[in-house]
Amino acid sequence: MVVRDRGYWAGRALRLPSPGSRPKLSPVNTTVENINPSRVKINAEVGAEDIASQLDRAARELGRELKLPGFRKGKVPAQLVIQRVGRDAVFEQALRESLPQW
Fold first, then answer.
1. What is the dihedral of CA 46, 93, 58, 25, to 10 degrees?
2. Which residue segments constitute the domains of the chain, with CATH numbers given?
3. What is the per-residue pLDDT across 56-84, written as a single tens digit (0 to 9) for each?
């Protein structure tokens, strides 16, 4: 898709990623256990490489919003984001973003 704008980019084509350009994730293995007639337990197994790629992606996206001393806004490396924000918070963000795709 090509988008044209009137500001600084006037006359220049800006390429946007197509909606289907998200990385393909491997299938998730799921099992369903009946606990009682009205409750079930769902177990899901996701590949380690998928988790790592989504974790890195979430850290980069959070890094675009952070402002840390020594870095321009939006230029914070993913590893520093994980250190500052915490791996659990980045993991939760990655899970929220990736869950619909799995």
1. 30
2. 29-98 (3.30.70.1050)
3. 999 988 888 888 888 888 888 888 888 88
